[in-house]
Amino acid sequence: MNAIELRDLTKSYGKSRGIDKLNLSVEEGEFFGFIGPNGAGKSTAIRTMLGLLRYQSGEGYIFGKDIRKDKIEILSEVGYMPSEVFFYPKMKVKQVIAYTAKLKNKKCVDEAYKLCERLSLDTTKRVNQLSLGNKKKLSIVIALMHKPRLLIMDEPTSGLDPLVQKEFFSILKELHQEGTTIFLSSHNLLEIQRYCERAAIIREGHIIACDYVRTLMHSTTKRITLTGDIDFTIDGMENLKKEDGQVSFLYRGHMKSLLKMLSEEKISDINIEDPDLEEVFLHYYKEGDEL
Amino acid sequence: MTLFLQELKRGRKVLLIWSLLVAFFVAVCILVYPEMKNMKADFSNMGAFSSAFGLNQFNFLTFFGFYGVECGMMMTLGGSLYAAFIGINIISKEEYEKTADFLLTQPYSRGKVAFIKFIAMQIQVILFNLLMLIAAIICMIIIKQDFLVREFYLIHMAVVFINMVIASISYSLSCFLRQNGTGIGLGLAVLLYFVYIVGNISNQKELFGKLSPFSLSDTADILTKHVLNGTVIIIWTVVSIVMVCIGLIKYVRKDIY
C-alpha cells in the first residue's frame, strides 16, 4: 500500500500558483526525500496533505484514506513537523507533551521523555524561554512521540546544531527500521542523498523528477574532471570550467566520442564520476528537462 | 474535554481580571446606594441623559431601579467588552500566534475544534456573569437588601443574554480573521451599545430597540412589564445562531497558512 498517493492535486492561492496537478506516490516504509527551492510548492503540498489547505481539484490518499474525508483517522497516524515551530508560549515543555498526548488520546508521554533525553531538551522550561533550536527539538518530540506510521517533516534540521542533527537522524533511522514511512522535505541535499531511498524534485508546483536517489545521481550525465587543458568542445558538454590547471564539465553523450577527443589532448589525469545530488538538482532547475 | 479544559485554562486570567474589575464597580454602586436614596429629583430631571438611560420612566431610586440602570449598565457594557474580547480572539488567536499548525494537525476535525472553543467561550461568559451575581448578592446582604426578587434575576438574565450575543457575533468574526481583531470586537460591542443609547433618546425607540441586543437591558421595561422583551430575544438569538453557523462554515473551509 502507498503511504502517500497524490493524483493531479491542485491548490492555488487566488491567482498565485501553489501546486499544479501534482502527482506523487510514496510507498509504505520508504524514507522519501522532497526537494525544491523556496516557493516551489513543497510546503503547499504538505499542508494540503494534512488538511491545513483546501485543494481545488485532484485526489489525495494517505494509507489509502482520503485526505479530505478521512482527515481525523489520517492525523492520528501521522506525525508532522512544520518548518516554522510555534507552541503555546506560556506552557512548559512537559505541559506541551502532556497536552499533546491527551489530544492524541495515546499513552506516549514516556516515549516523549525518552526523546527529550536523547535530544537534551529540558522539560521544565517554558516555550517562550526556548531557543529556536530547542523549539525545533520540542517539535521533533511532538511529531515522534506517538510513533506515527507516517512522519512528515518540513525542513526539520534548520536551526539544529550538527550534534543534534546527528542524533535526530539516528532516531529517524531507528524509526525507519521499525517500519515508519518518512517524508522529508529539505533544502539540504546532502541529507536527502545520505538518508533517503527515493526523492522527488518539485518545480513550479509539479514534480519534474521522482526516482531512487542513486538513479537520479547515476544518470547518463557524468562529471568529468581533468588535470591539464583541452582545446575542444563536444555535443553534450555543459558547465565547462577551467581553474588552476584543472578542467571540469558535465558531459551527457557517448563516452567513446569523448575519450577519443581527450586522447589527443595534453592531460595528465582524468576523473569520471556521477554528479552529486546538488548538481542534479541545479540541472533540473536550470534546464527543466530530463537528465 | 482536553481542548475544552485547555481553553478554560488559557482564559482564566482574563476572566479573573475582568470579573474583579467589573465586580468592583458593581459592588461600589450597590454599597453607595443607601446614600443616594434621596436624590430622585436630580436624576429624573436631566433631560436627554435621563431619557438615554430611561431614568424618566420609573422610580429610579427604588433599589432595583438604581441597580438596573447603574449596575446593569456596568455589567452589560463591561461584560460585553469582555465577551467581545474573548470571542474575537478565541479562533483567530491560533492563527496569528501560529499555533494553528499544532492544533489542527491533531486528530480533531476543525468543526469540532471550533465548536469546543465556542462552548468554552460561552461557559466563560456565564462564569463571568455568575461571579457578578455572587458579588451583587454579597453586597446586597451587606446593605440588607432583599435579593429574592424577580426583577433582580431578570436584570441578570438580560445581561447574560446580551453578553452571549456579543460573544457569538465576535466569535463568528473571529472565524474570518487571521490577525488580532481585538479592536473590531470591542468596537462592535461599543457600537451596539451606542445604537441602544441613540434609540433611547430618539423617537424611534421601538425600531432602534430591535437593532441592538442591549435594549433587552432596558430597566424601565423590566421594572414595568416584569418580563424580558421576547421580540429582542428572538431576533438576536436568530442573528447569533446564523452568524455562528456562517463562522463555522467559513472556518471549516478556511486555508491555514
Protein traits:
heterodimer; A: 291 residues; alpha/beta; Rossmann fold; Alpha-Beta Plaits; 2 domains; six-stranded mixed sheet; four-stranded antiparallel sheet; 10 helices; B: 257 residues; mainly alpha; 12 helices; 0% strand; P-loop_NTPase (chain A); ATP binding (chain A); ABC_transporter-like_CS (chain A); nucleotide-binding (chain A)
Spans of chain B of 5+ residues with little confidence (pLDDT < 50)?
Answer: none
Count of structural domains of chain B: 1
Query: What share of the residues of chain B does DSSP label as strand, in percent?
Result: under 5%
CATH structural fold name of the largest domain in chain A: Rossmann fold
Which quaternary structure do these chains form? heterodimer
The helix-and-strand class of chain B reads mainly alpha
- What proportion of the residues of chain B is helical, as a percent range? over 70%
- Average per-residue pLDDT of chain A, rounded, comes to 89
- Put simply, the count of helices of chain A is 10
Count of extended strands of chain B: 0
Named CATH architecture of the largest domain in chain A: 3-Layer(aba) Sandwich
End-to-end separation of chain B:
27 Å
Number of helices of chain B: 12
Question: Could you give me the name of the CATH homologous superfamily of the largest domain in chain A?
Answer: P-loop containing nucleotide triphosphate hydrolases
Specify the biggest β-sheet of chain A.
Answer: 6 strands, mixed
Shape of chain A: elongated
User: Poorly predicted ranges of chain A (pLDDT <50, ≥5 residues)?
Assistant: none
What is the SS-derived class of chain A?
alpha/beta
Q: What is the first-to-last residue Cα distance of chain A?
A: 29 Å
Rg of chain B, nearest Å: 19 Å
GO cellular component, one term (chain B): plasma membrane
GO molecular function, one term (chain B): ABC-type transporter activity
Organism (chain B): Kandleria vitulina DSM 20405
Pfam families (chain B): ABC2_membrane_2
